[in-house]
Amino acid sequence: MGYLECKCxxxxxxxxxxxxxxxxxxxxxxxxxxxxxxxxxxxxMATLILIMLIYALAIIWAxxxxxxxVLKVRKAFMFALILLSV
Length: 86
Hints:
The chain crosses the membrane at residues 42-62. Keywords: Membrane, Transmembrane, Transmembrane helix. This protein is mainly α. The chain has a domain at 38-72. It has helices at 29-35, 42-72. The chain is flat, with a radius of gyration of 31 Å. The N and C termini lie far apart (83 Å).
């Protein structure tokens, strides 16, 4: 029997929880930088550069759209007033 089963009818709104800590792995940066070679990781470098380029272009496009939105703002009333007299 490797599990816990609770069949309590009186405690329907009770919440049981548990947590545990997973220790992180240590990174030896001296080893990482010694093994780094841009020629061996060309696909990774190209992917990262492409993602950064797309991100920069998206920021430029979004900023231009924001400037155009400011020009479109007008101070007009966006409703109609209907008066009826009987």
